[in-house]
Every structure is written in C-alpha cells, then in structure tokens.
Write a structure and sequence with these properties.
The complex is a heterodimer of chains A (about 325) and B (about 525).
Chain A: H1 2-16, H2 27-60, H3 77-106, E1 113-120, E2 123-127, E3 133-134, E4 137-140, E5 144-151, E6 156-160, E7 165-169, E8 175-180, E9 185-191, E10 204-209, H4 211-222, H5 229-239, E11 266-268, E12 274-276, H6 279-287, H7 312-323
Parallel strand pairs in A: 1-5, 4-10
Antiparallel strand pairs in A: 1-2, 2-3, 5-8, 6-7, 6-9, 9-10, 11-12
Helix pairs in contact in A: 1-2, 2-3, 5-7
Chain B: H1 18-21, H2 26-54, H3 71-107, H4 115-137, H5 151-154, H6 159-186, H7 199-231, H8 244-277, H9 285-298, H10 314-342, H11 351-374, H12 376-382, H13 386-416, H14 422-448, H15 463-493
Classes of the chains: A alpha+beta (about 325), B mainly alpha (about 525).
C-alpha cells in the first residue's frame, strides 16, 4: 500500500510540478519544479490533515450545553512520537533532495562560456571576452554559461525566474552563478535586493539564441566602435544605464528629467537660475550630478557620478546622441 | 471572594490621568503599552494600505495608476511599515501587553519582580519610538527594516537616528525579558511548580530568554553600523575595507530569533484560548512547554537560511537548511497537540475561539511554506520574491496578529471588567480572516511566478493578482475597524463582566474582573495544574 501511495504521489507530482511557476528555461528549473511539486503535495496533505481535522473536531465536538463533560486526556506517548518522527522524516527527505540540486547549482561547470555581469544602480552590464558590452544578456542555447557577478555600488541580486536561479552581486567580491538554457527566447532578469530609487526598474532581458546567431551578434556588437558617433552614443546610453532613468521618446519624466527635445534650450535649475542645455552642461551633469539639479527634482540627486567611468570619446558620443533627440 | 464589595479595582483605585504615567502596577503598564502599540499599529497599517494601493496597477506611464510620488517614497513607506510593525507592534505586542498583564496573575503573584524597571521599560520603549518617528520628519529612511549594508551606509536617509531608535527599543525589550524571567523563577504562588504554570507563561518565558540573549547582538550590530556611518570606520562597507555579508550574519543572528520572539507568545495565547473555550485539558503539556524552549534554543542557529544566495558558502547553506528543518519539528508538535486538544472537547464558537481556530488555519499554511523555503534549491527561486512576503505575513499576521486579537477578546472581560458584543467581535474575525487570505494567498502565486518583493512597479502580467491582493487589504481594514469599534463600544456601554465568564481554570480568572490593585485578596495556593477540566 505504501508503495502504491508513493507511486500515486509521484504521478500527482508530475501534474503539480511547475504549477504557477514561470516557463522552465533550463534542466535545473525542471528538477526544482519536481521537488517543488512534491513539496506542494506534501504541504497540501499536511494542511488537509491539520485544517480538516480542526474543522471536523470543531463541528463534531461543538458545545451542547454549559455542563458538557470533556474527556481528560493528558498525553499519548505513541501518538506524540509518531507526529514528531513522521514530520522529521519528511523534512530530512526534502532537505536532502534540495541539497542534491543545490550542489549542482553551486558547482560551476568546466569549459563554460564566461560572461562578466556588473550590477550598478540601476542597470546590468554584461561584458564578453571579446570586449562587447551590452545591457541585455545574450547567450547561446544548450551551452553552459557562467555569470561572474560584481557590483559597483550596493548589493543587487541577479534573478532569472525562468531559470530558477538567483545570486546576490556583492560589492568588494565576485560571486558566480551558472545555467544551461534549453529553450530559445527572451527571459526576464530582475534585481531582487533593494538597491534604491529605481530598484524595480532594474530589469533586463536575457536572450537565448542559437550558437550561429550568438556568434553573429558578438561580431556585430564588437563593431560598435566603427559606427557613426551618435549611434555609438545610443549604445552607451543603454549600456551605461542612462536609459533606465531618462526618457528620450517624449517629455514624460521617468526618474530624472526627460532628454527629449532639450538640446540648446534654457533649463531651469532647482535654485531658480537658468542654464543652456549645451555640451558643457550635459558633461557636468554626467560627471557631477549634484552640481546641476533641475527644478522639481530630488535633492540630492539619486544619480550616481560617472566621474572616471567614461572615456572622453564615450562622453562625446553620448552628448552627440542627446543632440540628435531634437 | 470579598473584593467585590469595595468596588475598587486597578483602574479606579488611583484617580487621574497622571497617575497612569507614574504607575508601578503591571496591569496599568500593560494598558500603557496597549494604547501606544495600537496607535503604532494604526500608523503601520495605513502604510500597508498605501503600499497595496500603489501596487493596485503597474505604472504604465509615470502618471497613471500611481499613488506614491516615486520609487524613493515607496521605499520609505515600506521601510516604515516594516520597521514599525516589527519593532513597535509585533515584538512588544503580546509580551508587553498580555504578558505584562497576565504573567503575574497566572503565577498568583502581586506584580512582576521589578515593577519600577517595568515602568522604565515603557519609557525606554517610548523614547525609542519617538526617535523613530522623528526620523519621519527628518530625511526619511529607505533601506527596508533590514538596513542592509552598504546601501544603508550610503543612502541619505536618517539611518543613524533610526538605528539608534531600534537600539533603544531593543533595550526596553531586554529589560522586559529580564523582568519576566525573574518573575517566573521567583514569584510563583505556593504550590505553583514549574510544571503547573500555564502554557502562556512558558511561552512568555521562552520569549524572554530570546529577548535577553539575542537583542544585545542587534544592539552591537546597529552600533557598528552607526559608527561606520558617523566615523567612517570600515566594518561593512567594502569601500572602507569592510564586508557587507558580515552585516547580514550579525543582523539575522538577532532577527531570526526575533521571528520567534514574535510567534512564541502567540502560541502561548492559543494554548490558553483553546483549553478554555473547549473546556478541555491541554494535550501534551510537557511537549508544548519543552517545544517552546526547544524552538527558542534552536532558533539561534538557523539565521543563515536568510542568506542562501548572499554569497555564503554552499556548506553553510546546507548546514543552515538542515537546522531549519529541525526547528520545524517542535512547531509541528505544537500544531498536533492543539488539534488533539480539540478532540472530545466542548467547543464553543466564541470570538476568541474563532481567532484561535483561524490561527491554526493560517499558521498551518505559514508553517508548510516555511519548510518549502528552507529547502535550499527551492529557496533560490523564492528568495526575496512575494512568496517570502506571503509566508512571513501568514506567520506574523495570520499567526501573531490573530493571536493578539483572540487574546484581547479572550481577556477583555478580565482586563476591563466589561462584556463585549459577541456579534461585533465575530464579524471582525470574518473580515480579517477572509481579507487576510484574499490579500496574501495570491502573493504566494505572485512569488512563484517570480515577482520580486520591494518593487514599486511590476511587469503587466502580475497585475491581476496584485489587484486581488489590494482588494483583500481593504477587507482586513474593515475587519480591524469593526474590532476596534466593538472594543470601544464595550468600554463605553458594556455590561459588567463576570469574574470567570468562560469557566477557565487558570488563576487570573479566579480574582475579580477587573482585578484589584494587588491582584488577589489572599495569596492563592495552587494544588493542581492549570487545565484540570474534568
């Protein structure tokens, strides 16, 4: 009978695994969902016993008169041992099961494609071995990929729900996480460690493409340096996370001022003075954000300084891009 | 008993509002806590409503569906909601209100061991609370109640003042715990052996041990954080040579036991309500008492389960996962013992009993999801998502707040000598219980689908479940308002309560309602256990 029950549970498990979970993008995700399905079934049975028992007893032993006599039962050693040992066995079982998968998740595969991902307020930047920098993470399908995580400022956490992986990016040290994507497509990457103003917009896409498309993408991206200066600026605007706070499509304000059709016009500062939105104004705003705060925006500004992080050529490209927004 | 004739009790014996602020009576101090904690609960609740309102719809553009001004304001509101509910409502809630009132009464004592220290605890608590509220009028804190470094070191918020406030409130918590431990050991009435004390006392006693042992670690951590911010000493910030993960270890070394500071007293309340309203002796007194102590001790060694993805080693993750499984066992024991207590009882569906049954329902769900989260591989997916938010609200609100409400109604006739309107109290339960499930059950699903917590905005596919959750929060609000109205009406117009309206066997019901100043006319002598319903 016990084996029959076990078999029934395993069958149910297949049905329950993955309930409410995002698409399974990796084999690890499938393994975790199987364990999760088992946990859901055991949890459901436990709750049914506890809550069902409670409701049954409450109905059956409802008070009939104020003089009801109740049974005087102080304890029952056999029962107590039973309901201590059975939960313990289940707990140890799921602990061990979890451990086996966790060990796989934490053991970095050899010969994996390594991508350095740096988290900063509020963007992800992926850097590939050939020097390509990208705000979206592009990886080939069916290949072990190791993400080496670092943070430029505060704690962030790299979370891909469809891959069931998550790892904090800790300033001052490297952490790592790996996956082997089995499905083509686009998947969300979320930041799951509170990191300030735009924590909830620190979202990017992880694109799984075929090996051929991946190779092509790497080459196209590496030719960014040969692009016209404004197009290069548009790239940097994405990879340097400018886009997560500044709108460029219309005048709607995201976190910082919109840059749409601002070039060459007068800009009112928080102290009431006016400045012309020109090369030097933009340069200073990027390198020393606290020096120029537009009227109506938070003081001090949540914008991090880019002093020392952008080369002159990169800065010039971004400025050229902003010019073109008129 | 003779005390009826004089008409004097602890409420009217010393006249005037001022007498309350210098009182050394444990019952009056309990009421001081009652009023202040309820006030903070109201504020924390309004914050929660604001958060839910903001999440009613995603911010498609910046102007539609937006209640709070921006992500900063949202982060501030979630910080104050969390910090106030944890440090100013749930931690002091049961021990400082119900514990203060009923620990001496249940032991047959005149007061706690150190009445003056007891009053001082309230003043210390209020000082900390005032300081915390001051930060609200300074630069608001936006770190979340966890103050994770290095964000808490770099943000502009008044983190130092807030941390100092938590430090001071922690001090109050230590003093209260110390007072209770000594009271339990030294002031038991003749014949009240350790195995005749009610289970509520066991729970408060276990909690007190945690308060005394764990809180100093929080104090040290917060002090280090303040020193780092003020003097730039590198402890947690890598820019100064520190380690941010160290902060998490320190923080959770306190804050995980603190979770049990919040839930153990609730478990004590449930044991009292169930035995009384089922007129049934408790099943497995010793098992429940020792599981309280067991939970208290083991809870010191599980803090790392908050840190499976923090960069802590795989081995540490495994060890903490294992110990967390062990702490699940005494919790399961308690659940089964309460269930067995209902068996062949005489169950009366009073408001306190409904709250206690509601506790069992919600705590069962909170408990099993706790086990799910303790499984390393699965937690990697659920960590810092709404699954965790749902889990700890099921335990803390579904558990502790249900127990607080149940406890208030259970002991209301004793505390105030008035009868409350049963219908009003039951109606409040219906709204809170249903509203709670509508609010928080969808959050399990949101978490499974991957929605991270502390998000000001979310991708459109999470919208529907967020809407349901927000509507639930309005139901909970209605429930609490009905509960509050019922209590106020009872205080104003309630009929005089009998000394022992529920027919309970514990000592607090053997004196008048409300009790006289020194609790008992004559020191009671105890000859039997607390739940001798034969």
């Amino acid at each position: 009978m016990a084996s029959g029950m076990l078999f029934a549970m395993l069958l149910m498990n297949k049905a329950v695994a993955g309930t409410f979970m995002p698409e399974q993008g990796t084999d690890i995700a499938r393994q975790i969902d199987d364990l999760y399905g088992f946990l859901i079934i055991v949890s459901f049975i436990s709750c049914a016993i506890l809550i069902g028992g409670m409701i049954y007893f409450a109905m059956k032993y409802k008070r009939k008169s104020a003089n009801d006599k109740t049974a005087y039962i102080t304890h029952d050693t056999r029962l107590e041992v039973l309901w201590s040992v059975i939960p313990l066995i289940i707990f140890l079982l799921v602990f061990a099961w979890g451990w086996i998968i966790f060990h796989d998740m934490r053991t970095m595969p050899k010969n994996a494609l390594e991508i350095q991902v740096t988290a900063k307020q509020w963007a992800w930047v992926a850097e590939y071995k050939n020097g390509v920098r990208s705000s979206e993470i592009v990886v080939p399908v069916n290949k072990d990929v190791k993400i080496l995580l670092a943070s430029e400022d505060v704690l962030h956490s790299f979370y891909v729900p469809s891959f069931r992986i998550k790892q904090d990016a800790v300033p001052g040290r490297y952490t790592a996480v790996w996956f082997n994507a089995t499905k083509l497509g686009e998947f969300y990457v979320f930041c799951t460690e509170l990191c300030g103003t735009s924590h909830s917009s620190m979202v990017t896409k992880l694109k799984v493409v075929s090996q051929a498309d991946f190779d092509k993408w790497l080459i196209t991206e590496s030719e960014v340096g040969l692009l016209p200066i404004a197009q290069r600026g548009a790239k940097y605007f994405q990879t340097r996370a400018c886009a997560s706070c500044h709108n460029v499509n219309d005048a709607v304000v995201k976190v910082g001022p919109s840059l749409y059709q601002r070039w060459g016009k007068a800009s009112v500062q928080s102290d009431g003075s006016k400045v012309i939105f020109d090369e030097n104004h933009v340069r200073e705003s990027i390198l020393l954000p606290q020096a120029n705060i537009s009227a109506g925006f938070a003081k001090p500004s949540p914008m991090p300084s880019f002093q020392g992080q952008l080369s002159e050529s990169e800065l010039a490209a971004i400025i050229e891009y902003i010019k073109g927004l008129n | 008993m003779g005390q009826h004739s004089s008409g004097k009790n602890y409420i009217n014996e010393e006249p005037g509002l001022l007498s309350w602020f210098g009182t050394l009576d444990h019952k009056r101090i309990a009421l001081l806590y009652f009023v202040t904690v309820m006030f903070f609960f109201l504020i924390g609740g309004i914050m929660a409503l604001l958060l839910r309102l903001e999440l009613f719809a995603p911010n498609v553009t910046q102007n539609v569906g937006q209640i709070l001004k921006n992500g900063d304001v949202y982060n501030q509101v979630l910080t104050y909601h969390g910090a106030m509910m944890v440090f100013m409502v749930i931690i002091p809630g049961i021990p400082a209100i119900l514990g203060n009132f009923f620990l001496p009464l249940q032991l047959g004592a005149k007061d706690v061991a150190f009445p003056r220290l007891n009053l001082l605890s309230w003043y210390v608590f209020m000082t900390g609370a005032a300081l915390a509220i001051c930060t609200f009028f300074s630069t608001k804190v936006d770190t979340g109640w966890t103050f994770y470094t290095p964000y808490s070191i770099r943000t502009n918020g008044a983190v130092v003042m807030m941390v100092l406030a938590a430090f001071i409130m922690g001090m109050s918590s230590i003093l209260t715990g110390l007072n209770f431990i000594v009271t339990v050991h030294k002031l038991r009435a003749p014949g009240m052996t350790m195995f005749r004390i009610p289970l509520f006392v066991w729970a408060i006693y276990s909690t007190a041990i945690l308060q005394v042992l764990a809180t100093p670690v929080l104090a040290i951590t917060l002090l280090l954080l303040a020193m780092e911010r003020v003097f730039g000493i590198g402890i947690f910030d890598p820019k100064l040579g520190g380690d941010p993960v160290l902060f998490q270890h320190f923080f959770w070394f306190y804050s995980h036991p603190a979770v049990y500071i919040m839930i153990l007293p609730a478990m004590g309340v449930i044991s009292e309500i169930i035995t009384t309203h089922a007129k049934k002796t408790i099943f497995g007194y010793t098992a429940i008492a020792f599981s309280s102590i067991g939970i208290a001790l083991v809870s010191f060694f599980v803090w790392g389960h908050h840190m499976f993805v923090s960069g802590q080693s795989e081995l540490a993750g495994i060890v903490f996962s294992f110990i967390t499984m062990l702490v699940g066992v005494p919790t399961a024991i308690k659940m089964f013992n309460w269930l067995a207590t209902l068996y062949k009882g005489s169950i009366q569906f009073t408001a306190p009993m409904l709250y206690a049954l509601g506790f069992l329902f919600l705590f069962a769900i909170g408990g099993v999801t706790g086990i799910i989260l303790a499984v390393t591989a699965v937690d990697v997916h659920f960590h810092d998502t709404y699954f965790v938010v749902a889990h700890f609200h099921y335990v803390m609100v579904g558990g502790t707040l249900m127990a607080i409400m149940g406890g208030f109604f259970h002991w209301f006739p004793k505390m105030f000598g008035k009868v409350y309107n049963e219908l009003g109290a039951q109606l409040s339960w219906v709204f809170i219980f249903v509203g709670f499930n509508v609010t928080f059950f969808p959050q399990f699903i949101l978490g499974a689908k991957g929605m991270p917590r502390r998000y000001f905005d979310y991708i459109p596919e999470y919208e529907q479940l967020n809407k349901i959750s927000t509507i639930g929060s309005w139901l909970i609000t209605i429930g609490f308002l009905i509960g509050l109205y019922t209590m106020i009406q009872a205080l104003r117009k309630g009929a005089k309560a009998a000394d022992n309206p529920w027919g309970s066997k514990t000592l607090e019901w053997q004196t008048s309602s409300p009790p006289i100043m020194h609790n008992f006319d004559h020191e009671p002598t105890v000859t039997a256990g607390p739940y001798e319903y034969k």
